[in-house]
Amino acid sequence: MQLVGSRIIMDVNNNRNLHLFNALSNQSINDIEGKEFEWLVIESGDWNGVDFSPYASRIKKLKVQSKISDFSIFNGLNNLEAISIGNIGCSKIAYNDFKKLNSVSITGNVQITDSLFEINNIEHLTLRGWSAKDCYHLSNFPRLKSLELVDCRKMVSLSGVEAIDSFESLKVQCSTKLENISDIKKLSNLKRLHIEGCKSISSYAPISNMSNLLELFIISSNSIKSLEFLENLKSLDRLNLANTPILNGKISDVLKAESLRLFTAKDRKINDMKVRKIQELLVMERGSDNDWSRNKYKLESPF
Questions:
Q1: Rounded to whole angstroms, how far apart are CA atoms 74 and 97?
Q2: pLDDT tens for each residue of 144-164
Q3: Per-residue DSSP letters for 90-153?
Q4: Which end of the chain is more exposed for a tag (fewer CB within 10 A), N or C?
Q5: Could you write out the DSSP letters of every residue in 241-288?
């Protein structure tokens, strides 16, 4: 194969992943014919004008990190199930050309067009820099199981998520104007909730309705008035409150989550310990509940 300044690499850990570096001509890309792969990863190079249609039947996953001005070179990939897009320099993508997509990750400077919300079988979705103020567009995804919203700086509300019964995991990061999360209380099947870098959230009380929640992370976000809402989280296994202030100072309220196994606050952990053992350490350190208003993080010293 004559590949001037180009490389084709099969993933050593998974020989179904094909990584392409720099540009191949249509003639040289035909040499891929003998390779068995399902995941095409384009790492670098100028691929505009390359015809991928001969491999349409085998490619089920596509990850693009390279600069591509015309995404239509992939339009023949009719069996594509997952797509991950970085900083590719492409202004618009017709997502609805890929009818079988169930997983979409957009983490680069790519315009999120309405065509994305015409695919009703999406199960996993990551959006960075989405300009929406709420989540009503997501009601078009009745099968959505996991959602990650990153750096959505215009978003003020999560309204719209309540329409999705299939939700299992929700992660919101660096959405600095997000204030209203009240509609998450209707996500009865949610198992993982991760909030990080959201400094405007007005109340965390809606979380108390999520009885099936297994993991709750509230990291570097707006202060929590009280942890009393944990009492209703009967299934909670992991709690992370790193760098998020508790206003009433009662860290001992973590004991209200009776199933809690792992607790992290201020980057310190109580790991693989039963609640009774946590309680012993709390009592030993604090003396009485009334002490917590004056010794806000005294709990942390033994760990």
A1: 9
A2: 999 999 999 999 999 999 999
A3: -S---GGG-TT--EEEE-SS----GGGGG-TT--EEEEES---SSSGGGGG-TT--EEEEES-T
A4: N
A5: -TT--BTT--GGGGGGSTT--EEEETTEEE-S--HHHHHHHHHHHHSS
